[in-house]
Design goal:
Chain lengths: ~200, ~750
């Protein structure tokens, strides 16, 4: 389990690891790497092949390989809010549900780094952040094709319909107004990442 | 005091200014000792005439006067004057010299000339009146008349600024000088003069004439030791004023037919004295040496406003027939007193009238302003006189304003009328050539330029040349006065009807702007509050829900449920406030009132909101339409119906919904009327303010009507409320009938 989890969180894989995840031989991995079907790079100063996470995911998708080995089994949720009380509460709420793995961030900058490293399936994003606002975070994430699959749900106290409209246009998928019904939040998150 | 019954303590209570005044009067050089000695001289003393002559010869000026009187031919009115008149003339001469010594020019100083001319005229008239009644010998009518207004001169000497203010006000008002002085100074010239007379030890008749000459004959008879002289002085004063022998700042009396009524004068006597007075005054002026001071006829008498000696009536001024110069004179007066006039309602009334006159004399007036209300006011005043408005408002950006201020700042003094600069400014401000020579002048107030007016006189209108730079400066001051004065009306007490009328036209625009500003402020506040409040509310509600999910205790469960509910309710208030201030942009559609109203009203029955027969509706024209957002109109109607039904609930009253507009009307009008409890004036005034509710706490948040009002506004309409306690409430909804 520990090994699987570590695999799930890795961003770069060896050919052996890819063979294990995809349940194919290492030779097949090498052949696909060499003919360009599996995206990656060689370690500088050596001929060791390394496969990026994006490349692996793309390869698995195009060959219909089930991604369960790459996942912890839980959906990754990134909670971004400048109010730590909100962050703590949402974390507790989602952890108690048991279907989600949670990371948190309290600024737009942290949210960017966490998105890169943690590869969330879903981001619960506050609109007003101390450094950059939610609209900018949405746009930045949507500008990167690799993050296309990330589902963004804005959770915010804004009351101005214009601001909500702006957020949806910037690429958010859903909007939940604060204060919220906790069951509704769980339902919307689960629905978004299709966890039964 | 010298044998009189009137004492200083009887005088009107002196205010702070007056007390200071009297101190200064006391510090003045006293009236020459000789004058006092002369006044104590009694004409019937044995060998009196000789003694008088001896006294006169002790002063070189008086010796000259004696020679002049002696040399008068039989044609002169002063020929073979009795000794008492010679004495009076001598004293008048001494007083004249004394007053001339107090003259200090140039500007701002005291000029004795206008006062002396008035004094001489009243003295002559009083003497004549006493002559006609055969009582000239027993009392010094001439000198009583001469000294009657000495208080005015003293005021002008001791506090020239306040005196100028008073005289400027009197110039334009029909108010009595005593009233104005009391208001401005806290005392009046009669009281001040009387104090001085007591200090100088003047005989009783003079002190009485000084103190009582503005009182009614009844008062004079009751108070004066020698009422005959005082009454003569009173009548003489009126006569002199009527004939234009007025002292500075005073206006000629109204020329009504029975002006002598109440003067104890027969019409014949009045006419007789009036006819001979100018001759007497000329003679007296010659003897007293007044003619040497300034060209005769130009002193003391103010400019003729249209018909001779008519009181100022700006409404009668005509610019085309040369009234422009009269206007300019009036404006020059305002240039002299930029601040002093600001506190009086009289000046404000006149200011408004003068301003309107000027604006309508101009064919085009382009207004630049840095004062936010200037344009609104100017337009209000101008449109009152010339419907359609000749005042064009040109909004100025920061750059243009800076440039305009730079142009104005390069002018020296008040002159803003330089032709070439004005033409240039006109060109870059409007982008076209000016039709005639334009005028440009600053709107000044409190020594700051708060705006500017650019204008072009019409062919027959007021040209820049006619107006002159001083007058232009006066106009600037006037505008400044008006702008601050209108709002300082509480301070000023009352405001003239004209100003009020203009203000009434101006206020709705002002109110609307204030309302728009406050709505924008509420929106901003609500947006900020929404974020700040909703975060903690989300934590409160969320934590309570988390606890709730694990709670097995019934009591605790209920408590937690309450927390959750109330947190959401609090958030809801913020949202409603936001919706009030910034409603969703309407998506208007044309709806037939014949379908809409019955449907909406019926729903109140089906949902149990209205008792049987409580709500009725009527349509003047079922085909009439309304053009508004369907949901928002529904919300407006629901809010009004909820209020109306609530108002009649306890009294089982009636609510009527009437559509009163026709298909052909451009405006749809729906009236929601109830015969319920009605609203107090205070409630009515605040009825559309958000969160104002007359219901008991917890029975409503007070947002219904304010939101309805706001929704009507964003849909291009409005709500008009009419209500009185016991009479019920009537709300008129006005909305566009169709797209414009």
């Amino acid at each position: 389990m520990a090994r699987t989890t570590s695999l799930a969180n890795k961003t770069v894989f060896t050919t052996g690891e890819v063979a294990r995840i995809c349940k194919i031989s290492q030779q097949t991995v090498i052949r696909n790497f060499d003919n360009g079907r599996l995206k990656g790079f060689r370690v500088p100063g050596s001929r060791f092949r390394r496969i990026t996470r994006d490349g692996l995911i793309g390869f698995m998708k195009s060959h219909g390989i089930p991604p369960d080995q790459l996942q912890s089994g839980k959906k990754r949720v990134l909670v971004v809010d400048d109010d730590e009380a909100i962050v703590d509460m949402l974390k507790e709420l989602l952890e108690r549900d048991g279907r989600f793995e949670i990371r948190t961030a309290t600024t737009g900058y942290e949210a960017g780094i966490a998105t890169e490293q943690f590869r969330p399936d879903i981001i619960l994003l506050d609109f007003k952040l101390p450094d950059i606002n939610g609209v900018a975070v949405c746009r930045t994430i949507r500008a990167n094709a690799a993050y296309e699959h990330i589902h963004i749900i804005i959770i915010s106290g804004v009351a101005d319909p214009d601001e909500v409209k702006q957020l949806m246009e910037a690429g958010a998928n859903d909007f939940i107004r604060k204060p919220f019904d906790i069951l509704a939040v769980i339902d919307r998150v689960a629905q978004a990442v299709q966890v039964a | 005091m010298h044998g009189g019954t009137v004492t200083a303590s009887d005088a009107a209570p002196a205010g702070r200014v007056a007390a200071q005044l009297l101190e200064e009067c006391a510090a003045l050089a006293a009236l020459p000792r000789l004058a006092r000695d002369l006044l104590r001289w009694e004409p019937d003393e044995a060998g009196g005439a000789e003694a008088l002559r001896r006294m006169l010869r002790t002063d070189p000026g008086l010796a000259l006067l004696e020679a002049r009187v002696d040399g008068l031919g039989p044609s002169s009115v002063f020929h073979a004057a009795p000794a008492v008149l010679i004495r009076d003339l001598a004293v008048a001469h001494l007083v004249t010299s004394w007053l001339k010594q107090q003259t200090w020019e140039p500007e701002g100083g005291f000029d004795a000339q206008p006062y002396l001319r008035h004094y001489a005229a009243v003295a002559c008239a009083a003497w004549q009146l006493r002559l006609a009644t055969g009582e000239a010998r027993d009392a010094a009518a001439f000198i009583c008349g001469f000294l009657h207004d000495i208080g005015k001169a003293l005021l002008a000497i001791c506090c020239p600024k306040a005196a100028k203010r008073v005289s400027a006000i009197l110039h334009y008002s029909s108010e009595g000088s005593v009233t104005t002085e009391q208001r401005v100074l806290g005392s009046d010239h009669a009281a001040v003069g009387f104090e001085a007379a007591c200090q100088w030890g003047l005989p009783a008749p003079m002190a009485e004439a000084i103190r009582l000459h503005h009182q009614s004959p009844e008062v004079i008879r009751a108070l004066a030791e020698n009422p005959g002289v005082v009454l003569a002085v009173r009548a003489a004063n009126r006569l002199a004023n009527r004939l234009g022998f007025v002292s500075r700042g005073q206006q000629a009396s109204v020329g009504e037919a029975d002006w002598w009524a109440g003067l104890d004068l027969s019409a014949d006597l009045a006419a007789q004295v009036s006819d001979s007075l100018p001759g007497w005054v000329t003679a007296a002026e010659e003897i007293l040496g007044l003619d040497a001071l300034a060209p005769r006829g130009s002193v003391g008498v103010r400019p003729q406003w249209g018909a001779a000696n008519q009181p100022l009536n700006v409404a009668d001024w005509s610019v085309a027939d040369g009234g422009g110069s009269v206007l300019a004179q009036a404006l020059e007066a305002f240039a002299q007193f930029p601040e002093g006039l600001g506190s009086t309602h009289v000046a404000l009334g006149t200011a408004a009238a003068v301003l309107r006159r000027v604006l309508t004399a101009c064919e085009t007036a382009v207004v630049y302003w840095s004062h936010p209300d200037a344009a609104v006011l100017l337009t209000a005043y101008a449109s009152a006189e010339a419907p359609g408005g000749r005042v064009r408002e040109v909004p100025v950006g920061e750059d243009a304003r800076a440039r305009l201020l730079a142009v104005l700042a390069t002018r020296t003094g008040h002159d803003g009328g330089g032709a070439s600069a004005a033409r240039d400014t006109w060109r870059w401000c409007t982008g076209v050539e000016p039709p005639h020579s334009p005028g440009l002048f600053p709107i000044r107030h409190m020594d700051r330029i708060s705006g500017a007016v650019l204008w072009v006189g019409g062919e027959q209108g007021l040209s820049a040349r006619m107006l002159g730079s001083a007058a232009a400066a006066g106009l600037g001051n006037l505008l400044g006065l008006l702008l601050t004065g209108v709002r300082a009306r509480d301070e000023a007490g009352e405001v003239s009807e004209r100003v009020l009328a203009a203000e009434r036209r101006w206020l709705p625009a002002q109110e609307l702007r204030v309302r728009q500003q406050s709505v924008a402020m509420i929106a901003e506040m609500a947006a900020g509050a929404a974020h700040e409040l909703n975060n903690p509310l989300a934590v409160i509600s969320g934590r309570a829900q988390l606890l709730l999910s694990e709670c097995r205790d019934e009591k605790q469960t209920r408590a937690l449920q309450t927390i959750v509910e109330r947190a959401h309710a609090a958030s809801q208030i913020v949202s409603e406030l936001m919706q009030f201030a910034k409603p969703r942009a309407p998506q208007p559609v044309v709806q037939r009132l014949g379908e809409l109203l019955p449907c909406r009203c019926q729903r109140w029955y089906t949902q149990g909101g209205a008792g049987a027969g409580q709500l009725t509706w009527q349509l003047a024209d079922g085909e009439a339409t309304v053009y508004a957002d369907a949901d928002q109109l529904q919300e407006i109607l629901n809010a009004l119906l909820a209020n109306a039904l609530h108002a009649v609930a306890e009294q089982s009253g009636q609510v009527q919904v009437n559509s009163v507009s026709l298909l052909s009307d451009d405006t749809a009008r729906i009236v929601v009327e109830d015969n319920g409890c009605g609203m107090e004036a205070y409630v009515l005034q605040h009825a559309v303010d958000p969160f104002f509710s007359s219901r008991p706490a917890g029975r409503g948040r007070g947002l219904g009507l304010s939101r309805a009002c706001r929704l009507a506004e964003v849909n291009g309409g409005r709500l008009v409320l009419d209500s009185a306690p016991g009479r019920g409430t009537r709300v008129l909804i006005e909305l566009p009938a169709r797209p414009s």
